[in-house]
Every structure is written in C-alpha cells, then in structure tokens.
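Page 37, top half.
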Amino acid sequence: MTSIIRIRGHVVPSSDEPASCAACAVTRWLRIVGPVWTGFRGDVIRLLDPTKGDLDRHDCEQTLPGEWRRAEQLLLPLDVHGWARTGASLSGRSMTSIIPSRRAAAADGPVAEAVGAIARQPSRFDALTLQETYTELGSTDAAVDDALTRLALILNDAQALDTDLQQAAIPRKQQLAADSEH
C-alpha cells in the first residue's frame, strides 16, 4: 500500500509499480531538494546515482526527512553532476524544452521510459579525497592560467599584426586617392 502524497491539497497519483509511481517520484525529488538547498553535494551525487536506486520498493512508503522543508524553492536547476543554482529558477529555456516534448510524448500514449540501473562510466574523479580534489582543482587552475597566458600572447600578436596592416594600408589609400584625382 502506497502512502497518500498531496501537493497543495491535490493527491498525487500512485501506482502498484514503484518505478512508475508518481508519488514515489515526488518523494525521491524531495529527498534530493534538501541536500541541494543546504549544499551537501556529496549527498546529492549519491542520491542521483542511477545504479544505487531500488526501483522494486515504493519510495513513497519510506519516511521522508524534513530537510526539504527548509528549501525556499523546490524546482532547482540541477545537473547530473549534482551542481545546482540555488536562488535561480529553472530557466524558461529548460521548461520550454522539457514540457512540450513530454506533452507530445504523452499524447501518443503511455511514455515508455528506460527503468532500472544504468551503468555509468567510471570517472577518475569518483574516489578522490577532499585533499586530492583540491590538488586536482589546483592543477586545473594552473592549466587555465597557462591557457590564458597563451591566449594573451596570441591576442597581442594579432593586435600587432592589425597595426602593421593598417599602417601598410595608409600609403596605398593615399596613392589610390591621388590616382583618382587625376
């Protein structure tokens, strides 16, 4: 038996299948909103990991911690890496790309979605400690500084070339002007 979930007095429908239960989707999202809002990105990444979910058990029947209640907004722009922009609404561009495609798919009948564990390609950053993360960030910062230095040199060369070309063009323009007077 699934729990009754309400949003502003409206009952969110539930179904026998946990993977397609709308009430479960709501409670899963509320489990993510709390850590996103409070800045616990590690928890968010763990919750977003598709290999860790149990789609054979109703999430809407599990106790829901109340930390999501502290969030000032529930629809947060969130990427698959757990980064969110709190204080910013989900962009109109995101909504206009998501909603019509979902409505069109639903108009053709039930939406068949891939359900189940999805193997994610491992990353070299998966098991880094905090110190290793800072070291990687430092290396990335140094690489960006090097790239910016190279770009500044290229820009200076381009500006010098532009100056040389403009100076070379001045006598040619004067010659053309003189020729047109004859």
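Page 37, bottom half:
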Amino acid sequence: MVATPKSTVVRVPKAGEMVAAQLRRQIVTGELRAGDSLPSESALMAQFGVSRPTLREAFRILESEQVIQIRRGAHGGAHVLVPDAAAAGRYAGTLLQYRGATLDDVHQARAALESTVVSTLARKRSAGDLRRLEKALAEGEDLLGDPIAYAEKHDLQFHRLLAELAGNQTMLVLVDIVFAIIERHNQSFINVHRNDEDAGPSVKATQKAHVKVVDLIRAKEADKAGAFWRRHLVQVSEYMINDPGETVLDVLS
C-alpha cells in the first residue's frame, strides 16, 4: 500500500513582502547606499507593477526593520539607512523582556561570546591587530585618572574592538546585540555609583585585565586567553549586578 502524502499548505508571500524583499536586497548588497533616496512612488509602482497601497506596505515593512526612513516635506520620500545592530539589539531586548530573562543571563551569554572571540583573535592575530590593541591600551591608560570617562568612553569600546579584530561578522553582530543591553545597564550603574571611592581602583583592575589579555593574544595563547577573559567577565558581572534576579525589563524599561 502506497502512503498518500499529506497535503502541505504553502504560504505565498504577499506582493508587499516581495517588493520589500527586492528593495532590501538592493540595500544589503550596496546597490542602494545609506542616505540614497529611493525612486519616486510612481517610478517604483511602474518598476514592480504594483499599486500604491502595495508599495506603501513594502515601505512599512522596511521602515519597521529600520533600513529605510520615510521623510515628510519638500525633501521627503524614502531614504536608505545603514542596517544597525542597535536596532536588532532593541528587538532582542524586547524579546528577552517578554521571556523574563535576567541580567545575569545576558552577562553569561556575553562571557561565552567574548571568550570565544578572544580565543579566535589569539589564534589569528596579525601585527596590525596588535598595533590597534596597543593603541587602545594607551587610550585606556590616559583615562585612568578619570574613572567615569574610562567607563563611559573606553571600556566597552575595547571589548568591541576584540570582537571586530576576531574577524567573524556573525559573532560581532551578536556581541553588538548583547552590548546594546549591557550598555544601558552600565550607564545606569555608573549614574548610581558616580561618586564611589572605589571607582578608581575598579578601572585600574579593568585596565590590568586588558593588558593581560593583550599579552596572551600577542603570545597566541588562545585557550589561556579565552579562559582568562571569561573569568574576568564573571568578576565584572558579580561586581555590576546587585540582584541576580534583576531582569532585562528592569534595565530597559
């Protein structure tokens, strides 16, 4: 007896979604660049053979993804935006809020991501990578006398530089998404503890950890570098999080 295959319902994309997909492709491939104006509505309607309501539905989709911006007035119309990890971070933050994720959960994910980033960088680092890391260390050293400036202007930038130099674009985007949440919490923490006496020793300990991880990267000690960075980030989370049950909602609301 031959089994009868079950019927499968195939969802056909709506015309607005198909137009949005075509325009999105032009944006992400660089055919349309940041700041460019899209052609007029009448030109796009003729190009895609769609009605005005269908085209505007495509615009709504792309605007919700923050890859275009609709402007009003004499210089109005649809303009291309650079795809932004911060926008993805805001969406991810909303999803984590909905799921009741704790801030500790976010920091654990950060430690896992960044330790992998550091191990990857240590295995492939170049002379140019080391020059950029040394420059970042020097910038951090110059800010040690101003702990608030160090925390606000340097610390996360150093972490992001590690991810950038590791060269994996997927990990870099994931790090940026996590940082969009971490940065909000960091700023809140800084505002509360702006006048604390232990701020100076804290940034000095952080700078010391930065120097150590660069030494391990320079030596291509990939496993040691990753393990060291994970320990450092666990210490950071223990210092930054007062309540392990604090949720992402508490930070982003």
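Margin note: The chain has a mean pLDDT of 88.
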